Structures are given as structure tokens and as C-alpha cells.
């Protein structure tokens, strides 16, 4: 035991940061601690009191440092290991979560001159107030036929670096002018740890429109807004670090914060979803990891570069160096189930769940689990939050077909579970049809607890389903990166084999159910194309009608 | 006052009979009484203990006589009128509710030899176990191009006289052989009152396939089943009475039951929906009455005979003598709202409704009423119980399009209200497009209490909505028939003008809302045709899949 070495992975989520101490030799998770951000998500008003418009979502960077100061030492104590035996630390972050800093990495919001300026703060991934800017970026890129656009399924998100930066320029030119670096929080936290700024390949590619070593051109940027022409050159461009590499060494100050030895390896930053791949031992080409929560993020490495319709992005070294990292997504999954459970289930169900000490989800799942495939007579489209992959259309919406007076809440619930599985199957088939093979599906995230859902996914996709066997996938993945950065393993794949954990083929497809689902999937596909590919754009028109009606009534969209 | 004369209308519903005493001169409703059938609807086992298969729904004829014995004298007492001043009585009945009797009108189930034979009892309108027989009738009629089929929108119902009789023949030939008359309950109760059997033109036409004075031919019947060839000749055919005519005079026995004077006029029988037309003063050509309850029945007279697609039936003198009576229907209306309210509304809503002492319907209506047209972003199809008019397809089912995570129960509720209004508009437009003008819409039934629903119907149809101003439309309509039979008025229309009551143009369409609804109706129509006219028969396939799945799992459809 005295020879054991350890690494720390720190997962920066939306509301809290989690530190996890892991043994280098086998990935054993020895202790963890969570620190909730005191400012959580800032949506209504700045700490200084300034009110925020709708769709804003900010964070306060000091909250992130506190995770290092509080959660890391707590986790080390909980693990009961000698801090001196910790050889590396790595982080992962939500993305695109981005902030303006000075050249030395000081967040503008920490300068007294800017403390009351909303645009000086961290823009959280779910800050959605730059939609206008994103629309213009997309429109211009389509018109100019920008080569990078197909790498993102034809659509740049309002959540990403360029749309958010353009919003700063147009709404607070002073803050924009004072911004010397436009930094992903994933890289900023690494900068805090090692004192040097390294831009990681993952966020630069997926969120920063870096493709083939280049960014959108000055001409493109100038066409968006004259003052934006030098954005890349002045504020964004920076040497790239590959995943698993050393970004630098733990500074004395960061050693003091964390209680870890000064000088240990600090790994290049990463995104929470993508770093889950090594935790699930899914770094080989064709191993698709679905991180299933309120939404689902799919990440997969491949040896080939193809333009797969409707991907969120394909990035060189986006998951592991040397391979093309593909990302796809389903905009709504768990949040659809949550919405239905909150708004569509009668009192008697809630009462029974309460009485039995289970959740309404569990009750509905239990009742739905006894059904044969197709028994509910329904087929649904899982587009309540739009459709990211493969239709890339946030104006789509949900559908349920087949309800009768005999339809019960558990019927609709099961139809919604199935709809998201059908959505996953569309993504898998699109990968294959585009020449990007998928050899295995590994699931991670909170929804893996629902065994019915998992079995439905296995049956619908007709593939064995492997399950990440850790409750702390991202933090474990970060710890694996830390071990690689510390030199304990030659590369991420080798480290993942030793330290990752997966229950291989935990759910096997049943051929009879799979055949029955083929019939329902055919119905889903017909409706998918009818509503989603322009035959009947009723959903867009309904949203337009809704917006007009609400505007005329003087109401904000809820 | 001493010169006032009175009539009694008796409305035989599904669970009870209601007697209403009405003043002849002005239709004033003076007193009423309800008698609940002791046997209600017999679905599980006969009174004698014999178990019934699924889909059966029987009644016990003695329950109907008890209405005469109990409710009629009670109503007369409640009205505080002199029984001697009552000049006529009329009845209306659910239909097709039909029973086998001997030549003197004795129900076979009242003969000890048949008391334990299910087929000897009254088959209530919603006995649905003759679907197989109905399917064969339709298939054969289509193949032979029977001229009467288009008069029924191309589809005979399993609820009607022929399907139910064929079921008796095939499942209990002895009972069939013992059946000397196959009698509508609407006529049987009149027979009980006046001692003579008169077959009314309304049920004979709508439920008995009587068209142009003829029934389906012996050749047709023989092709269905050899033993069925003489069904019309032996058991069904009988002299026809027109609506409002005298069927006979109250017998001594019926006078003893009811406490009414022997020898007063007994009117020809009628159907509850159709008799509502005179109560609503809607007997002129083009006045469409929508009786809105769990389902909606539309009745309208016209001078012209046209084959209107998807009608339930068109019958010479079906509503008033001398005009063509059209009947259309929406299979599900109030029962869709009821289903949603029972199964799709969360505990918090139920708690608020309870606390405020209102129904969940009222709460949802109140919340939905504040919305602008289209604000909910939804469009629904109202086919949870299939679609009668104009698609004539009971394999269709419900759809909701446009749900997002912001969709609330009141949004879906309002979309369902609107869907039924769109369904009504399709019927109105089909009448007009077929050359049968609709000049006015009058609504009746329990749903008229929902003011939001009424306003939506006015806005969606862009027509002023008149409302029957009586809570007891069918019984009032029957009383009007009684007055005509008693000779107090020359015809039903004249009597209706004096005795019926309607709030004319109680709801006026708002042009702005009507224009907004035009947009949503266009979406409804597109989906209506896509799902309902064969472009995508997904609903039929889902029902087929459901049936197979349930059969394989050994479960009965619920």
C-alpha cells in the first residue's frame, strides 16, 4: 500500500464541483467531496444587484476556486490517503462555459471597475441570450459556404464561444475591449492550478470552431460585425494542448489551496461529457458513449472523418488524441420524463408513490414494465426541447399519436421512454449510413438507474448495452487524464483499461422484443421525417403562432 | 289556469328515465322526476347469474315500465297539476336499443324459459359484441354495391338492428327462432303505453336500414347467413308511424301505472337526440342541433337529399315528417375532456380545485380561458374514440402535436376543446360542400355549461351559437311530440315555436379570434387528412400492434 499512487479528478458541474481521489493502479475510487457553488447560477441579478434580462445564465469564477480549496482537501481526507502520494490532478468542466479575462487570467468581473457589468461574468453553457448572434453566424456561414459549418451538423449553437463573444461586443463594447482573453472555464481552472494558459483541443474544437488548425477567418468575422474582425487573433487564438497532456505543474498557491504537493502534473482541461469516455473504457474507435441525463450527449471516436448529418461536432483529438471525436446529442431525454411526471400524472399516482416511498418515476416505470411491446398503442416523438441530432432543429416539438380513452399515464410514459430510444437509434443508423461504424453502446449518467429504460434501449437498438460502473463518471475520467498527465500510463486508452470501469453487455437485446420494436420504429421514422424534414412544418408554424399570440398579449414565453 | 292543458314527456336514458310535465300553451316545465333503473347496465352477469362475455351491454325491460309507474306520477305531483288535465304522453329512447319479443310484445327474457339466456334481453345501444357481424354486413354491402350503404356514410354500426339480430341468430338460434318481433325499445315502450305496436320512422331509418320504404333484400340477408333471409319479413317489417303522430291511446293498464287519464294520446316513439330538435326550435331546414355530451350527435333537417360523406344516416322524416333528417356524430367529445381530467392532471391541480370547491374541469377552463388563440402552441386530433363524421373510422385515435417542456395541463385541455370544435367545423363544411346548407347552429346537452367551450365553437365555426334553454331537452322535445299527437298543434314545427326554448345567438364569433383559428384549423385539416385519409395509416397499425401484443400476453383490451 505504501507504494500506491493517487490522482485527483475534479468535475465542475452546473451547480457544484466534485473532487474524487482515485488509485492510479486500478482506478479504485477512494474518497470524494462535493462543494456547491455559493452563487449557483446567476439568472436574475448580479451579486452587485444589477438585474439581468431573460435567457441569461452567469456564474462567479471564485466559486470554482472554492471547489479547489474546499472539496479537494475534503476528498483527500475522505480517501484517507497521504497527500504526498498524489501525483496528478485533472479537471473537467461544463461547456461552453466561457469568461473574459485579462492577459494574466484575471476574470474581468473580479476587477472592481467591472463588478457591476453583466458581460464581465462567466457565461454558463446555458446562457441563451446570444441566439440572435448565433442565427447571424449560421446565416452568414451558410451564405459563404464556410467549410467548417458541416463539421457542426450545419448549425453553430448560441451557447458557443463565438455567439457569446459577439453578444459582448454588441451589448457592452467596453467589456469587449477590456477582454484580453476569451477563455473556456475548462481552461481557466487549469490556468488557476498551474499558472499557465493552455487551450484544450476538445473545447477549442467543439465550442470554438477550431477545425484543421484554423478558426473562422477575419473576413467572415468582419462581415458579422466590423469590430469583430480581430476577435480570433486578439482574444481567442492560443496554443492548443491535447487531452491527457500536461498543461503545467501545480503552483505553490494551488498547492496551498488543495493541500496537494506543489509541482505535480496538472492535465489539460476537458468537457464533462467527453471525459466520461475513458471512465467507461470507451476510447477505441466505434465505442459510443451516451451520457444520459436531462439531455443525452453521445461521444465516439473514429479513425475516419465523415460529414455525418446532424452531429454537434467532429473534432480532431476531441476525445482522445489521434482519433476524430464525434459528438451527437438529443436535446431532451430525462427532462421530458420529468416534465411528464410533473405535469401529466394524476393525484392517485402521486399518492400511491408517496405511500410506498418511491418516486412517481419509479411507480410509472413499474407499471409500464409489465407491458408487452406495442401494448400501449402509442408512438411519440421526443422533440419537446427540439431535435439536435440528426435534424438540428430547435423549432420542433413533441407529438403523441394513438391515445384513446383507455390510455393510462404509464402508457404515455413508456411511449416517451421509447421515443428517446428511437431517437438514439436514428443517431446510430446515421453514423453507420455515413460510413462511421458503431461497434458498441455504453451508457452513463443518471438515467442508467432505470432498468426498464436500459432494456428498451438494448431492444430498440438491437445492441448489447454496456453501463459505466461508476456514479462519478466525469470525475473518474478526469482522474484518468491526471494519471496520463503524470506519466503513470503512456496514453489515455491504456489508462482507461486499467482505471475505467464498465459492466460490459449489462443489457442484452431480446430478439422478439427487438422485432416488435422494428415495427414501432418504422412508425417513428415515418413521423420523424413527416414532421421533421419539411413535409409538414406544422411545428414551426405552431411556434410562430404561439410567439405572435404571446407577443400580442404582452406575455413573455415561459 | 283551469283551462291549461299539459303533456308528459318521458326520456329513457342509459341509466335512468326522466318524466317531465309541460304546459301545452307555452312549454313551461312544471315538474319532473327521475327513476334510476334498478338493473342499470348489465355487463358482467344476468340477474339470473349467467356470466356475459366482453363488450356486452344489456338491460332489463321491467326497469322501463317502472319509470312509467314511478317517475310519471311523481312528476305530475311535483308539477302540482290535475292529472285529468294531461292530454298526451310521448317518450324518447336511447337507440339502437333493441329487444326480442313475442307477437304480443312480451320480452323473451320475461318468459321463464329464456330468463337465463343472454340473447333474450334488451341489447343496449352500447352493446358492442356484434362487431364481427357488422363488419360482414359492411363488407357484403360494399361488394354488392347496396344502394342504402351511402345513406349511412358507407358504414353500418355494430350497434344497429341488423348486426345485433344476426348475432342472436348465430349465437343462440333458439332465441332467434322464438323471436316474433325484433323491436326498438323506443317502440316497445309505446306499445306498453297504448297496447299497439307502431314502428317509428326515425329508428327504422337510422338504425333499421329502412330507406325509400324498403329494407335490405332477402338475397342480401341470405348471403350473410342462410337462416337470416326472412329476418325482415318475419321479425322486423311493421307499419311505420311518422314522428308526432298518434301511435294509440293510453290503455287502462298504462293509465293505472301512470295515474294519467285512460285514452289520452300516446305519440309515436323517437330517439333522444332527434327529439331534442323541436325542444330547441330547430325543425326548419338548415338548423343544425349539436347535442354535446360524452359524444356529440348532430341532427338537421333539409329539403334536399344528398349523399353527404361520413354521415351517420339520412332518413326521410327522421326528425320531422316531410323533410330529410340528417344525423352526423363525433364519437368522442366530453369523454375526451373527462379522460384528460382524470388521467392527465397533476395533484396540485386537484388540490386547488378541491380547496376552491370547483371541479378540475372548471379549474382547467378558468386557466385556459385567459389564453390568446394559439398561445399554447398545440394542435390536437379529437379521435380518442375514433372518428364517426366525416371519416367513419373507429380505428383512428388521438394526437397531440406541439408539446414542449413549457406545456401545461390547461394548454393540452384547451387544445382538446378546440380539436372537438375543429371536428364540428369539418362536419359543417362537409354539409355545405355536399349541397346541404347549414343556416344556424344550436347547441344542447351538458357541455353547454362550459362557456369557454361554447365561445371556442362560435369562433372556430365563425357562426353565432344558439343554446337550448332547457336542462331537459329530450324530455321537453318528447312533450312537444305529445302535444302534437294530442292535436294541440297542427305539426311539430308549430308546436316547437310555442313550446321549445332557445337562447338565440347566445355566443357570437369574434372576428379576430376566428381569423386566428382559421390558421389552426388549417393545421388540423392537414393532420386530419394525413392521419385520417390513408396517407399514413399509423393509427390502424398501432391498434393492430396493440391487439396482437395484448393477445400474445393473454390480456383483454381495456
Automatic annotation (TrEMBL), chains A, B:
The Carbohydrate kinase FGGY C-terminal domain, residue ranges: 289-486
Catalytic activity field: D-ribulose + ATP = D-ribulose 5-phosphate + ADP + H(+); L-ribulose + ATP = L-ribulose 5-phosphate + ADP + H(+)
Documented EC number(s): 2.7.1.16
GO cellular component: cytoplasm
GO MF annotation terms: ATP binding; D-ribulokinase activity; ribulokinase activity
Keywords of this entry: Arabinose catabolism, ATP-binding, Carbohydrate metabolism, Kinase, Nucleotide-binding, Transferase
EC category: transferase
Pfam families referenced in this protein's UniProt entry, alphabetically: FGGY_C (PF02782)
UniProt-listed InterPro entries: ATPase_NBD, Carb_kinase_FGGY, FGGY_C, Ribulokinase
Pathway field: Carbohydrate degradation; L-arabinose degradation via L-ribulose; D-xylulose 5-phosphate from L-arabinose (bacterial route): step 2/3
GO biological process, one term: L-arabinose catabolic process to D-xylulose 5-phosphate
HAMAP family xref list: Ribulokinase
Family according to the record: Belongs to the ribulokinase family.
Protein name as catalogued: Ribulokinase
UniProt source species: Micromonospora pallida
High-level lineage: Bacteria, Bacillati, Actinomycetota, Actinomycetes, Micromonosporales
